[in-house]
Amino acid sequence: MDRLIRADLYRHARRSGLKGFSEAWFISGFRYTFFFRKVQQHKKYSIPGIFYRLLLRRYSYKYGFQINPRAQIGEGFFLSEHQGPVIIGAPVKIGKNCNIAHTVTLGQTLRGPTKGHPTIDDNVWIGTGAVITGKIKIGKNVLIAPNAFVSFNVPDNSLVVGNPARIFRNDNATLGYINNVLEEKETLS
């Protein structure tokens, strides 16, 4: 099992290895993430690539998750186990240990000064119903509250609340929200 899948598994099941995998397999967010990672590992028109793309499409319809395979998502990705639409376009970039709740949209803006897709840094928690759009950068250790609409850059260590969103400085914004992070030195069991 590669490092990305192991870190995702640890975030969902609090353990890795076969026992953790067998427990996390029944969590919709992990199952979808697993097939997303497999699609990215194989060429589009190879036999495994076609197989994993078909499975990813099946689970996209089943769970409502729509993550473009060209999206770049770091290790420790936690996709909410609640079924519901999560839309992540390409070429969105997401750092390590990011949590995304249901009904979240990370999308592109087609015109204006923020034309493009967002970049999300490490240790970001995005709450239910949040919308992040445009070529903007969300810094490290940021908590985006449920139903926030974010169309501007957000600095590190911030709490983003409301629609239209407001930024509040908070050095511990994601404390208690980003859990079960697989550290380099941890042994996998």
* Nearest-integer average pLDDT: 91
What can be said about the biggest beta sheet?
6 strands, mixed
- How many helices in DSSP terms? 4
Helix content percent band = 25-40%
Number of domains: 1
Fill in the CATH topology.
UDP N-Acetylglucosamine Acyltransferase, domain 1
Notes on the protein architecture:
This protein has four helices and 15 strands. The protein is an alpha/beta fold and 189 residues long. Helix 1 crosses helix 2 (17-24), helix 1 packs antiparallel against helix 3 and helix 3 (28-41) runs antiparallel to helix 4. The chain starts with a helix and ends in a 20-residue tail after the last strand.
Can you tag this structure with a few keywords?
189 residues, alpha/beta, UDP N-Acetylglucosamine Acyltransferase, domain 1, 4 helices, 15 strands
Write the layout of secondary structure elements.
Blueprint: H1 3-13, H2 17-24, H3 28-41, H4 47-63, E1 65-67, E2 72-73, E3 78-79, E4 86-88, E5 93-94, E6 99-100, E7 105-107, E8 119-120, E9 124-126, E10 131-133, E11 137-138, E12 142-144, E13 149-150, E14 158-161, E15 166-169
Parallel strand pairs: 1-4, 2-5, 3-6, 4-7, 5-8, 6-9, 7-10, 8-11, 9-12, 10-13, 12-14
Antiparallel strand pairs: 14-15
Helix pairs in contact: 1-2, 1-3, 3-4
